[in-house]
C-alpha cells in the first residue's frame, strides 16, 4: 500500500480555506496549521517530519511556510493548529524557522493577483531525530531530510 497524506482541513488540488491563510501582510486568515494524517509509512520508519512549501513565491527559491521534525513513529496525525501553538505537537517535536522569520506555521500570503501552490509533505525518516532547532532554516531542514527520507507523501492546495 502507498504512503499517503490526508487532511480534514485541506482537499488536494483545491483552494486553501481561510483557516490556513496567514493573518498579516494584507490577509486576515486564522493562520492555523491544518489537520494532517498519514497512513502506510515505509517499513523501518523511526520518525516523521512535515513541511509546507510554496514553490511559486517570487523569491527565486520559493517560500518555507512550515517545518516540523522529530515526530515519533508512533503518531500518524496532527490536529488543526498543532503548528500554531494550539497544542497537539509531541514533546519531541521541533518546529524550524520559516521564511516569515520564526518557527511555527505561517499560512498562505501570496502577492496580490498571484496564484500559488502550497505543498504539504510528510517524510518518513530512518532516524529517531534530526539535528535541527527552531533556528534552522527550511533549506537546512530540507538538507537533513534529503539524507534520511525513506518515503514521502504530499498534498497540494492553491491560493490566490
TrEMBL record:
Pfam families cross-referenced by the UniProt entry: PBP
Gene3D superfamilies recorded: PEBP-like (3.90.280.10)
Molecular function as annotated in GO: protein kinase inhibitor activity
InterPro entries for the chain: PEBP (IPR008914), PEBP-like_sf (IPR036610), YbhB_YbcL/LppC-like (IPR005247)
Keywords on record: Protein kinase inhibitor
Signal peptide: none
Name under which the protein is recorded: Kinase inhibitor
Organism: Rouxiella silvae
